[in-house]
Design brief:
This protein is of the alpha+beta class and 101 residues long. It has two helices and two strands. Strands 1-2 form a two-stranded antiparallel ribbon. Strand 1 (39-42) and strand 2 form a beta hairpin. The longest helix has 15 residues, at 86-100. It is globular, with a radius of gyration of 14 Å.
């Protein structure tokens, strides 16, 4: 394992089953810089599946990343607050949902 706690695709953290407030399970998708799905939604916020301890326990993130699927209003508000193009953000959500759902 590298010193920055990043794991290869085959070494991803084991994330326990979590009862989410979402009706459907949100897709896992690339978000934290990987080319493979490295983000999982837990209770409306994304968690980095590559950021875990030696035993596979996922670290609690310092910064909260709203899920673009089940927490879309907060996600879009963050995009707006960061002066991102909301039309492009919606297009990205649509492409991710089509590819990984």
């Amino acid at each position: 394992m590298s010193t920055d706690n990043k794991k290869t695709e085959t070494e991803q953290c084991t994330i326990p089953s979590v009862t989410s407030s979402a009706v459907e399970q949100c897709p896992e998708f690339p978000y934290f810089g990987a080319r493979y799905p490295d983000a999982r939604c837990i209770d409306g916020y994304l968690h980095d599946m590559d950021s875990c301890d030696e035993e596979g326990n996922v670290y609690i993130m310092d910064e909260m990343h709203p899920c673009p699927f089940c927490n879309k209003d907060e996600f879009m508000q963050n995009q707006k607050d960061n002066e991102e193009d909301l039309t492009e953000a919606q297009g990205w959500i649509d492409r991710i949902k089509t590819k990984y759902n």
